[in-house]
Arginine biosynthesis bifunctional protein ArgJ (Acetobacterium fimetarium), 407 residues
Amino acid sequence: MKIIKTGGVTTPVGFKAGGINCGIKSNGKSDLAIIYSEVPGATALLTTTNQVKAAPILWCKEVIVNPYKQAVVVNSGNANACTGEPGTAAVKLTADKMGEALGLQSADVLVASTGVIGVALPVEKILAGIDALVPKLGNTLENGELAAKAILTTDTVMKTIAVEVDIQGKPVKIGGMAKGSGMIHPNMATMLSFVTTDVNIEPALLQKLLKETAVDTYNMISVDGDTSTNDMVTVISNGMAGNSKLEENTPDYEIFKEAFVYVHKTLAKKIIRDGEGATKFVEVEVFGTKTKDDARAMAKSVITSNLVKTALFGEDANWGRVLCALGYSGVAFDPLKVSLVFSSQAGMITLLSDGVPIAFDEDEAKKVLSEKEINISVELNEGDEKAVAWGCDLSYEYVKINGDYRS
């Protein structure tokens, strides 16, 4: 697998993109993005588990019945969530305008929104923006970056990735962009992720692969424990790389799968690294559980604990909070078998070994936890399964950002 450091959604063959400010954001920052495939592509989609779903999410769930799509239009600055019938109508108008501008059917278009909930969407600005942006779409790196910047809200950096693998002697590329910084929680965090690829694959297999991939990527991240109304991950695969159609359980499929998982995991981790007000990136590894689901549940329980997160912000090795979070994860285990380690580039401290607390130097612990990236490793000694979750600390800045969000 070749990692293309400067790549994004325009890296695969046949994809164009772009982004502009259409007037939703009053600060002049870009707020409208389009991704366009030259040909219809097999499409996979995952959306929020929140019972309250934004209008664009409902549209996407309706039109994905035909799993071949050709364009995605995304606005930031307004979530078009909890906006009633006018919000539904706005999505239809947006899809109609995209279809008109690109020579497509409305149902060929996916629509996504992100921003403030419960505010009427100024759809006339989006419609005018589509007319202005479509002629500017291109397949350059810059075009991809313009799109990646246009989907951001409280994010401080754009989040992109691209890789290339060899399939049947053909260079197959996968590119992606994402947004997310707050309202991030397992089971589809508050985030948008758009991935393009030129591989030739059936939509049913692509959907299966995306669903499997999300379990150990997007569903294993957390900033603040809130799941949004607008979360969405979509993949469009236009087949323009020219490979024969991928078949499951073949060497070529496994090569593609490894790269596919890498792209989504990288985007998920970039979201956490840019968590609202975060000062630390935290990885929680749980080993030795009876089942994979046990390991996932325990890792997520630790990463979502506000007490663990605040202790890490304060650089306090309060490991009892970790054990407590494991205890309310819903997984049965023997605390007397648990071992626990904190580590970073500054060193490693063992805090618990087979259920017995280990005396440690507070100054050394402070040094370990003062780093930007922290690892918490838990060994259960109950079985052979493991899982990893990613999160961040909880800082004063998080409260400030979210206290001022609507203003």
Observations:
- Confidence is low (pLDDT under 50) at residues 182-189.
- The chain is about 30% helix and 30% strand.
- Residues 28 and 213 are 36 Å apart (CA to CA).
